[in-house]
């Protein structure tokens, strides 16, 4: 991945632009620059949008769903899609016994910075009173609610298991 690609593509929550708009702008940019790797990665993300639905109740009372409109798609929805694609790509790379791929690096440009072990541990120390819980693992809900998609559930679980 070139240095210009890192500067051109990607998103983070500090940007004032919604992730959907940034993806559209980056798709256009990748087409203009004839960057096939970035273009296909962004198109793959957008191809997952039909999985984003809203539950509705029809006049007959039957429950159904409809696709989310562009205005209803949130940054969290898209981050969830990208995390799913990233996870499946890592599994493919693991099966091939490869470290990384251009596709995976492009996907990661659109994920928010993940909270580190130290950051999570510091937040737990400052905000969690384990006396309120029957066991430490019950605090997981509060921790994940605070960090949202910026914390890896496996890491939080490991931290809680090691907590003294």
Describe the fold and architecture.
The protein is mainly alpha-helical. The protein has two domains: 3-108, no CATH class; 117-162, no CATH class. Helix content is 55%, strand content 6%. The chain is built from eight helices and two strands, in the order H-H-H-E-E-H-H-H-H-H. It has helices at residues 3-8, 19-32, 36-47, 75-96, 102-108, 117-127, 140-147, 153-162, and strands at 53-57, 63-67. It has a two-stranded antiparallel sheet with strand order 1-2. Strand 1 and strand 2 (63-67) form a beta hairpin. Helix 2 (19-32) packs antiparallel against helix 3 (36-47), helix 3 packs across helix 5 and helix 4 (75-96) packs antiparallel against helix 5. The radius of gyration is 19 Å and the shape is globular. The model is unreliable at 1-6 (pLDDT under 50).
């Amino acid at each position: 991945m070139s240095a210009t690609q890192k500067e051109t593509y990607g998103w983070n929550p500090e940007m004032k632009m919604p992730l959907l708009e940034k993806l559209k702008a980056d798709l256009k940019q990748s087409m203009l620059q004839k960057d096939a790797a970035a273009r296909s990665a962004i198109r793959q993300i957008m191809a997952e949008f039909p999985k984003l639905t809203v539950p509705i109740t029809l006049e007959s009372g039957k429950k159904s769903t409809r696709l989310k409109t562009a205005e209803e798609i949130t940054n969290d929805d898209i981050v969830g899609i990208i995390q799913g694609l990233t996870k499946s790509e890592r599994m493919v790379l693991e099966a091939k016994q490869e470290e990384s791929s251009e596709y995976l690096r492009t996907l990661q440009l659109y994920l928010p910075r993940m909270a580190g072990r130290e950051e999570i541990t510091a937040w737990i120390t400052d905000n969690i009173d384990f006396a309120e819980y029957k066991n430490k693992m019950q605090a997981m809900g509060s921790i994940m609610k605070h960090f949202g998609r910026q914390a890896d559930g496996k890491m939080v679980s490991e931290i809680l298991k090691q907590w003294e």
